[in-house]
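Design request, tokens follow.
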């Protein structure tokens, strides 16, 4: 947690209100300047203060080292959990002894009311709710894992990811590669309090997610067709780029009009359930505004994948040759 603000206070209050109550709450303050550590201490929460920010991966690992329970439940500082969250987790793990980890999703009622926050949160909610229950990765905003498994895997990779990025997805890939199971529990939903702006959304989607995720896929040579990587999503990226190229080339090649319109129609068909979901939740005007944002997301996601592939081909170093073991982040 770093500079949690008012959302952090709500997060702590929601954890303290859980039934049953958590055995312990550990807050790792990653160099906050807004007094978040003092707020946590005033509420009687165990606080680890790090003066120089090291990123969420290292912060989570620090907290995990001090935890005494058999299950570790990671929660971002800008989410609030429902009162039954811990009961749900305990029941799921108890019912499936071979299960290594559990993740949830955002709910469909984010705290921030501006359009981009609503759009971004609803898109995330829809993708998770439509995905396989047998998950292909981990999620740090609302994810639980057996402590023994977390330690054996070396925790999050704080060396490769010293700032907010895909450290949770990377851990999930290692878990799956080692043969561990991860369950997406769709009824486990947390409320997101982050207010998204154009700048923060584009930065997060492109630089913090799409680019490093591409590098991870190419590094591990594993393509998990789930969440944002389904065949429908991949085909949508192709259609979106064809629309862009057809639009650019139309003045020189008028015959591109009909193929471009066909690609646009394909985008509507491929994503009609998502757009219908937007319509049901927030009305027709919201859905109409969401469509161009979603198309832009497909375009810059495809661009990030292309750049990532180019970087991978240009990199002549052996994969992982100079990389420290993730275990160094945990031990």
């Amino acid at each position: 947690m770093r500079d949690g603000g008012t959302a952090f206070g709500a997060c702590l209050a929601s954890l303290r209100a859980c039934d049953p109550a958590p055995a312990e709450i550990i807050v790792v303050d990653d160099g906050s300047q807004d007094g978040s550590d003092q707020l946590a201490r005033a509420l009687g929460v165990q606080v680890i203060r790090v003066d120089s920010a090291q990123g969420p991966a290292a912060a989570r690992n620090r907290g995990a080292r001090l935890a005494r329970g058999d299950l570790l439940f990671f929660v971002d500082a800008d989410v609030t959990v429902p009162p039954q969250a811990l009961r749900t987790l305990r029941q799921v793990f108890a019912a499936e002894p071979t299960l290594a980890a559990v993740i949830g999703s955002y709910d469909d009622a984010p705290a921030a009311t501006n359009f981009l926050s609503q759009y971004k949160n609803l898109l995330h909610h829809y993708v998770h709710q439509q995905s396989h229950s047998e998950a292909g990765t981990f999620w740090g905003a609302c994810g639980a894992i057996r402590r023994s498994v977390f330690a054996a895997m070396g925790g999050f990779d704080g060396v490769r990811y010293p700032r907010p990025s895909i450290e949770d997805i990377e851990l999930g890939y290692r878990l799956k590669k080692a043969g561990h199971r991860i369950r997406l529990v769709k009824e486990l939903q947390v409320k997101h309090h982050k207010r998204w702006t154009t700048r923060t959304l584009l930065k997060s989607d492109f630089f913090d997610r799409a680019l490093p995720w591409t590098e991870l896929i190419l590094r591990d040579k594993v393509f998990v067709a789930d969440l944002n990587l389904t065949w429908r999503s991949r085909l949508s990226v192709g259609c979106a780029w064809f629309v862009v190229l057809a639009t650019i080339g139309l003045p020189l090649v008028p015959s591109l009009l009909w193929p471009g319109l066909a690609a646009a129609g394909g985008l509507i068909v491929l994503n009609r359930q998502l757009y219908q979901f937007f319509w049901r939740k927030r009305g027709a005007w919201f859905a109409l505004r969401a469509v161009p944002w979603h198309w832009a997301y497909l375009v810059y996601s495809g661009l990030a994948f292309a750049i990532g592939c180019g970087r991978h081909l240009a990199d002549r170093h052996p994969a992982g040759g100079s990389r420290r073991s993730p275990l160094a982040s945990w031990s």
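Comment from the thread starter after seeing the answer: thanks! The first strand starts at residue 26 and ends at 30.
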